[in-house]
Amino acid sequence: MNWPEYIKFLTQWAGSTRFEMTVFYITEVGRAVFQEIEERHYKGNDFIRKNVIAVYRFNERDQISHLDIYEQAKDSGRWIVKAAQTSLNPASAS
């Protein structure tokens, strides 16, 4: 997924869900920041809870140069997968 596809995915997803999160830790090590959170996603009667670690890497100008996201969830929900597929291929929305 490239940047324009990711923006489209986030826009579609964010417009149809309620989102909450709890921040557990934010740790800076050198030019990297590690963020550990719990995400809670609600869509209608569906509920997803995820443990997430995001790793932000910064360049010499203190700009984000790379981002890795690691998620752990029992069930990420078909609706999140469908939103990602739709952003990559609008014909798959059916």
Polypeptide structure, described:
The protein is α+β, with helices and mostly antiparallel strands. It has a domain at 18-82: Nuclear Transport Factor 2, Chain: A. It has helices at 3-14, 78-88; strands spanning 18-29, 32-43, 46-58, 64-72. A four-stranded antiparallel sheet has the order 1-2-3-4, with no helix packed on it. A hairpin with a 5-residue loop joins strand 3 and strand 4 (64-72). It starts with a helix and ends in a 6-residue tail after the last helix.
Write the layout of secondary structure elements.
Layout: H1 3-14, E1 18-29, E2 32-43, E3 46-58, E4 64-72, H2 78-88
Antiparallel strand pairs: 1-2, 2-3, 3-4
Helix pairs in contact: 1-2
Question: What is shown here, in short?
Answer:
The chain has 2 helices and 4 strands, in the order H-E-E-E-E-H. It has 94 residues and is of the alpha+beta class. A 4-stranded antiparallel β-sheet has the order 1-2-3-4, with no helix packed on it.
